[in-house]
Task: structure prediction
Amino acid sequence: MSENQLYAHKRRPKGRRGFSWTLALVSILLGLSFFIPTNYYVTRPGSAIELGPMINVEGGKKDETGSFMLTTVRMGEANLAWYVYAHVASDAELMPKELVVSKGENSEDFVRREQAVMDNSQKIAEAVAFRLAGYDVKVEKQGVWVMGTLEGLPAKQVLKIGDVITSVDGARTTEAKDLLQALAKKSAGDQVEITYLRDGQEAKTMLTLVPLPESKSVGIGVRPDNKQSITIPKAVTIASQGIGGPSAGLMMTLEIYDQLDTSVDLTKGYKIAGTGTISLDGTVGRIGGINHKVIAADNAGAEIFFAPQDTPDATSNYEEALATAKRIKTNMKVVPVKNVGDAVSYLNSQKPKNS
Result:
């Protein structure tokens, strides 16, 4: 062996040790990245879940061939690893934390809010479906639902997500606009008596009005919604499996209506997914993350996808969904809907799948 060969032979183990140290360092840094938080949430395609097994209508009949499916988005706090992943993956997005949770809101508050919104969406879906099927539905306005409280403002110290404000200074607040009108007559520094319900128990508190951030008005610092009692003539059970938010409203409405109208197979044998909030008048509203939901529906084999046509231009949910469908080259038909009647009319116009 020459002197040069011997020298090279002796140096190889040191090079391997250097590579091993580099690999170990990279592994350590990669591991640490899972524990380094960021100020973002990461969203990704979730799943498409059949509603038939989740929803049961008293005396109703379920389709034996086709199905309605709600679609979900996977969301979680982004550590450094997920932050990097979202910058290189085509189907992951970052959202600033303040757009997901309010300042001062903890994870328990967020879950409570999302579940409260889902519960409200379920009740509205029941009302719309029963009315669509020709049944009488009784809707009673109950008050102002607290969907969040703003950090540093009076309500934060007293009210919780899910509370229902029923009056201000003794004047009934049956809906959000009543609360806003009552406070509009006041000035900063005025005290008001707030009567509210929490878990069915009535309570009262005195709060001092303050100027609201980025507003010329005064208030107590709540994110309001309308709380109503809805009475339907048949029992409906919905096992939402911990899913939160309002975006399943349209699809739950269609499933309930389909079970009620036993004379028609509304699905015609197709696998139908979609998304959109639902209002008492049947209007379908905009939702977030529709690109992820299109991918989830396609992964589940959906053939039709209903998307809210919330605006008449390229910014609508429908146009977003259509763009995603084209990008992933799906054969799934994306259908725009402005109200639940649009979805029903479209399905009634379809030929049965196996005809």
User: Anything to note?
Assistant: Residues 117 and 339 are 19 Å apart (CA to CA).
